[in-house]
Amino acid sequence: MLTLALPTGRVQKEALQLLASLGLPTKRLEKAGRSLVIDEGTTRYLLAKPMDVPLYVHYGVADLALVGSDVLAETSPALIELADTGQGRCRLVVAGPKELGRRFWGHESAIMGLRVATKYPRIADGYFAKRGVQVRIISLNGSIELAPLLNLSDCILDIVQTGTTLEANRLVVLDEVAPVSLRLVASRRSAQLRWQEIGPLVEKLNPSRKEVL
Ligand SMILES: Nc1ncnc2c1ncn2[C@@H]1O[C@H](COP(=O)(O)OP(=O)(O)OP(=O)(O)O)[C@@H](O)[C@H]1O
Ligand SMILES: O=P(O)(O)OC[C@H]1O[C@H](OP(=O)(O)OP(=O)(O)O)[C@H](O)[C@@H]1O
């Protein structure tokens, strides 16, 4: 049985459509309800929180996973990225009040100690370290846009898709950090042991990749 870990939440539907387009069974998955393990004959799906998805592959309970590149960048698991599915597209950005723009792009010393609210502390730390700036990271689990509104932070590092949330909270994009999309990943062990089953899926997503690295 091939086991795939999938993220719950907003990309679940796109992930399901993608699996169906790859020819994998999704009949029971479509009606999963509150079930977290769904068996579809030779395929088993595990439904997990997006940030936890890489863990299931890392610990060997799942052979494969669909996971956002934002999550991979934040959690840095030792997994093989087999394909960019092109789904779940959004962007990681630094955003803040428009007035911060001049200071943000001014001399580095002007943003030393900046307070950055985010669900992605490692990515935020890396982004500012690259600019040679030490900042104060405020780790939140959601509704990140609240932080600058309440003066809990100066800016945020978060995901933007349509821009509606930023606009509704009077924030603007200050810098692009990275584009995000849903990736197909596997552990090295699974990719080697189960390549007969995994290979055809990878070829469908990425016809130029025929062998496991
Ligand atoms: N507009 C978007 N906003 C947030 N995440 C998006 C968006 N578009 C695609 N994604 C992908 O979906 C994943 C997050 O999904 P979701 O927002 O449901 O997770 P979550 O907020 O961690 O979970 P929960 O809502 O259950 O707390 C991201 O890791 C990203 O890869
Ligand atoms: O650009 P938009 O299309 O408005 O989407 C971006 C918003 O979506 C995400 O939040 P989500 O809905 O996942 O809720 P959260 O704040 O609980 O993470 C993200 O953190 C932004 O707040």
Share of residues in strands: 25-35%
Give the termini separation. 23 Å
Radius of gyration: 19 Å
* Ligand set: adenosine-5'-triphosphate, 1-O-pyrophosphono-5-O-phosphono-alpha-D-ribofuranose
* Low-pLDDT windows of residues: none
Please bin the fraction of helical residues.
Answer: 25-40%
The biggest sheet, with number of strands, parallel, antiparallel or mixed sense and barrel status, is: 6 strands, mixed
**Total beta-strand segments:** 11
Order of strands, main sheet, comes to 2-3-1-4-11-5
* Estimated structural class: alpha/beta
Mean pLDDT: 95
DSSP helical segment count: 10
Shape: elongated
Instruction: Give the topology string: H per helix, E per strand.
Output: EHHEEHEHEEHEHEHEHEEHH
What is the multimeric organization of the chains shown? Answer: single chain
